Amino acid sequence: MASQSGPLVIVGGAEDKTGECRILRRFVELGGGKHARVLVITVATKLPVEVGAEYIDVFQRIGVEDVRTFDVSHRDAANAASAIQMIEQATCIYFTGGDQLRITKLLGGTRVDAALHEAHHRGVVLGGTSAGASMMSSTMIVDGQAETNPRPSIVDMAPGMEFLDGCVIDQHFAQRGRLGRLLSAVAQYPHHLGLGIDEDTAVIVRDHVLQVIGRGAVSIVDAGKVSYSNLDRVRRDESLALCGVQLHMLPEGCGFLLRDRKPIPDFEQWLHRKELSS
Description:
Rossmann fold, 9-stranded mixed β-sheet, 4-stranded mixed β-sheet, alpha/beta, single chain
């Protein structure tokens, strides 16, 4: 029997690191609790020592005894045997924030890239915040304008690390006014769902089912049933017309069926019914 892939914990950035640390605690619980072996990957940031030290302190404060950091400043390091060994020993792997293009540029196609996918497939928990969230999808947002109306030119896209298919992820969502650029992204990739994750908010994805946890909400943009779009007729700097887009606002306690494109208003009730029927 094939093993089930591990959960993805995708965080919208600015997760609580000084209070209850609910999101990070949940991440650790999924990976073994007090027996978890956490690997923090700092490749996205230009301050790996400082950021790594901060996360070591946080994870130790919430009870993790085995927490390590791993940085990659050049692609040779992403092909080293020692890097593969660290990934193979971890039960939880967490990507920090920074620049998502650094992640794909330095890890894409390397032995570390392959080892991360192998780890996920055998059940290891993968988490990421901010840039570490955006890179989870097969197509990612790398840059764009905020607080403006949808236009093709306001969002730049690139291949991601392909841990989550069928979605485009944006982070710091409500706090930085990024609905326009997410709409622009899904207008160009309507087969993808747009996930806009607020700060100190996360989605846990298991078996194509999404659960929302944290202080804010997750905005899900579904362009699958768009009845009209002028994308093929406007210049890149002109405004987009989109009719029939669905927008779901999901705070903690809600969920979403990614394959069926259906919201779950009460996740615990849905889970209970699923367990009774299995």
